[in-house]
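Check out a protein:
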Amino acid sequence: MPDTPRQPSVLFVCVHNAGRSQMAAAFLTHLAGDRVQVRSAGSAPADTVNPAVVEALAEVGIDISAEVPKVLTVNAVQASDVVITMGCGDACPVFPGKRYLDWRLPDPAGQGVDAVRPIRDEIGERVRALIAEIAPPAPA
């Protein structure tokens, strides 16, 4: 029996873990299913996820209404293969052997759903490209 490849893990980090990182984690979970382990966190988490972000994702069939912002921990970074930052600056600890990407995206904080939609769509495209790279579907 061939070895099953290890499931890659991705951590999305932004300051408040209330917008961009929540959208990215939700898209990755929705699109990759159990092929990828997904985490998200913030260097200074907000109390709640941005309601415009919840609404924008609901429009594309993804429900994150039960999600809550989580604090960034060293353990979360150490346990992840790919760490994608979205405007957290130097707050994210760096460890050797990890792959770091910085996705520069507008911050949806304080924005209405009309302003969040293009950010959502950009994140969706980037997540699709990431999946194709780290967890392509198994051959039929």
Observations:
- The first strand starts at residue 9 and ends at 14.
- The helical segments are 20-32, 51-58, 74-78, 113-134.
